[in-house]
């Protein structure tokens, strides 16, 4: 037996060599995703609107919700924004008319 702890691939069983190649591919993919090389290509393909939607989902924590929960939350936010804008415009009109 050789003095090194690692055997040449010719002395390994075939399934062991395949397993080690799969592990090597997994580790290289993991480190490339951590370093940002794989994800960077995907981010470059996103247009401006997609980036803003993604930022909104991540900032508000919506990425972890189901589609219907996200829809309910968005309806709530849109209703709240409509209420603020509508009442703000009425208040501004009353303030402008002044007495």
From TrEMBL:
Keyword Transmembrane attached: yes
Swiss-Prot/TrEMBL keywords: Endoplasmic reticulum, Membrane, Transmembrane, Transmembrane helix
Topology with respect to the bilayer: Multi-pass membrane protein
Pfam families per record: SPT_ssu-like
Gene Ontology CC: endoplasmic reticulum membrane
Predominant location category: endoplasmic reticulum
Taxonomic path: Eukaryota, Viridiplantae, Streptophyta, Embryophyta, Tracheophyta
Transmembrane residue ranges: 67-86
This protein's name: Uncharacterized protein
UniProt subcellular location: Endoplasmic reticulum membrane
């Amino acid at each position: 037996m050789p003095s090194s702890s690692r055997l040449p691939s010719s002395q390994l069983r075939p399934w062991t060599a395949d397993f080690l190649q799969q592990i090597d591919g997994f580790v290289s993919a993991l480190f490339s995703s951590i370093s940002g090389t794989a994800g960077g290509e995907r981010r470059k393909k996103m247009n401006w609107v997609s980036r803003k939607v993604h930022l909104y989902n991540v900032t508000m924590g919506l990425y972890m919700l189901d589609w219907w929960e996200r829809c309910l939350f968005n309806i709530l936010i849109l209703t709240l924004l409509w209420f603020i804008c509508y009442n703000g415009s009425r208040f501004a009109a009353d303030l402008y008319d002044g007495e």
